[in-house]
Amino acid sequence: MANVPMDPAIVAACRGFAADIADDVQHFIDRHTTVGVERTVARAYGVVGADAEGTPLANKLVDRLHEKQLTGRGVAYFLGRGLALGAASVQEAAEALAYGGEIDDAGGVTPAAARAALEPGTAEAIARIDRARVDREAFKAQHTVGQTPLKYVIVATGNIYDDALQAKAARFAGADIIAVIRATAQSLLDYVPEGPTTEGYGGTFATQANFKIIRDACDEASRETGQYCAQTNYSSGLCMSEIAWMAAVERLDMLLNDAMYGILFRDINMQRTFVDQYFSRRIIARSGITINTGEDNYLTTADAVEKAHTVLASQFVNEAFALRAGLKQEQMGLGHAFEINPWLEDSFLLEIAQAQLVRQIFDRHPIKWMPPTKFKTGDVFHSHVHDAMFNLVGVATNQSIELLGMFSEAIHTPLLMDRYLSLKSARYIFGTARHLGDEIQWKPDGIVETRAREVLQSAHQQLEEVKRDTIWDAIGRGAFGDVKRTRTGGKGYKGVVPRHPDYVNPILDVLEKG
Amino acid sequence: MAESKLLRAYGDREGDGMIQMSFTLEILPSDRAREAGKRFAEAHGLKDPLIATMEQCAKEHTYFVAYGRSPHTVNLADIHVEELAAQPLTREEIEATAKKLGRKIVVVGACTGSDAHTVGIDAILNYKGFAGEKGLESFKSFDAHNLGAQVENHELIARARALGADAILVSQVITQRNCHKENSAALIELMVKEGLRDQFIVLLGGPRIDHQLAVDLGFDAGFGPGTKPLTVASYLVERLVGRT
């Protein structure tokens, strides 16, 4: 193998720092909830529908509790109390709370009684995502699965029905994984839209109905080609955990899900994000979904040579958070990218050093390799060559998931033929260089080995500093992606509340038991 | 009247008009499909088109690459386009010229509307810059504020007023269904409505922006793909101080 030097003692120390960093935050997470978490709980108990203006019942319900400063008791308490007091169903209890008269905040029913009334609902909620997992895995087992690097492509027409067509065409052309890019503003919406959607800028809205349409298209493409077509979407933004729930129910295979991405790149409040990512990942862990983290983005805002170690440091942090949410390493598609200035001499060697280092450190993880975007121009012919070099690194270092570059990057969302040519190029390079990594060894103390050592050393140093400062303050001084955020700044902060001593969330309780 | 100069595509030999095009048609590869591809190319004016590639790219679609001779010419004398100064000033020239202003040039920039892609505005404003050129933040003569992504037009204007900005920089990367144009036009409209348009130099940038489009939308200038910080800094210094 084209291994790079990797000092196990330094790697272990990095994991130790990351564990301390995550434990500090976990202590906070375990004492808080958010409106997003509570909406997810409501949905898990079967609260569905929206009013005439499109406001989901889950929002209406939690907003009313929030206005009365009751979110900290957990929406489950109020739903259970409704049942205990005679509501015929959770839905009926939810409607009464959302649209009925004043909410009685005096209690009236003990938390234990509310919990007991919800018991069948809790069991059904968990059974629902367990069944979806079993169904997905059984269907997958009936098909062949692509070789790594798995070829991941995006569709982003804005219209879910066009997306379905493009998704099937992509599988036909050799894709293993289809991502429907989300409409750009969705991460900042504090609700999940309802129903199938046909209009969206920069992508298509993530809705439960849209998930189902793409799942059906992917399944159809799997049957037609005999090879499994995986589906992914975004569990991120202000509705991170609600989307995780919907994805779990609709049998998605993967989710873009990152402990810090929203904080850095969408200016979502860090308290909100940390609490939301935890609950979303508890659902994801149970569902056997693979997460894709977003460290690749750091290199679009920070320099990819100077700040390469921040990607590695963040991967350790993301791993530590994911472990605390019950994910297995085999579910962690830690992200990194090929974003060094292509005109820099020997940039290819720097890229391969980092890709190989990440491969070795995270050897059980389905790591996610992202293509060049920052230095892409409208020169499609050059862009295709640039992507070819990226593909070569991907196969030589055996990345698990590779988001294929598009030669029309920086021009438009990929056309049918753009995706075809990208897949054709990847098929060629993955084939022609299949065992390249097994055949080569790096020159001792050469450029590649030196670079790998430096990156690991710098990541170690950064993690030590982040641990010293805590991640709250480290993000405040721009430790990741050169982006600075404050503890109480950003969107969604008002939706974070401390848990009441009698907080009720039986769904989380079951998920935490594993 | 400028002197007439006819431009024609140049491939191998002067005046051959050679161009390449690629496209997808809903048909499977066959002799008939090849003829369809050829006629499609001819319909675009290509003489003697050669279908160089014909491959199935989806269940019911074929991808074509065609070469052919374009008979078309363009007369340069007929073209009148708003053009920015071709040669930006150097960093030293910018700092020296800006000194004459006696204060820093205040610039506020953002990706507006739903656009979440800050790569363009970051390249121009942030210290790090792009492709070896440091951004406006790195200039002594500039006070640059990058508001980041998904900033609403009214918010951008409010910040520009609060900071006493000389210039507002808008980046629009997402172009689906022309949202970049609508969004940019809405900013100018809002500024005009509030009587603020003349208080600021307003610049537009993005991969699908050119100077002419920006001017048509009511901006002072537009900057397309590959624009580096020096070009923007030069423009601003020259507008505020004049070329020396």
Describe this structure as you would to a colleague.
The complex is a heterodimer of chains A (514) and B (244). With 514 residues, chain A is α/β, with parallel strands linked by helices. Chain A is 53% helix and 7% strand. Chain A contains 19 helices and eleven strands. In chain A, helix 15 links the parallel strand 9 (368-370) and strand 10 (401-403). In chain A, helix 1 (8-29) packs across helix 13. Chain A is globular and about 75 Å long. The two termini of chain A are 37 Å apart. Chain B has helices at residues 31-43, 91-99, 119-125, 153-163, 179-193, 211-216, 229-241, and strands spanning 6-7, 18-25, 47-58, 61-69, 74-75, 105-111, 142-146, 167-171, 201-205, 221-223. Chain B is built from seven helices and ten strands. Chain B is elongated, with a radius of gyration of 23 Å. With 244 residues, chain B is α/β, with parallel strands linked by helices. The longest helix of chain B has 15 residues, at 179-193. The model of chain B has no long low-confidence stretch (mean pLDDT 88). In chain B, helix 6 links the parallel strand 9 and strand 10. In chain B, strands 7-6-8-9-10 form a five-stranded parallel β-sheet, with helices on both faces. Chain B has a three-stranded antiparallel β-sheet with strand order 2-4-3, with helices on one face. Chain B has a two-stranded antiparallel ribbon with strand order 1-5. The interface between A and B is medium-sized, with 37 and 33 residues.
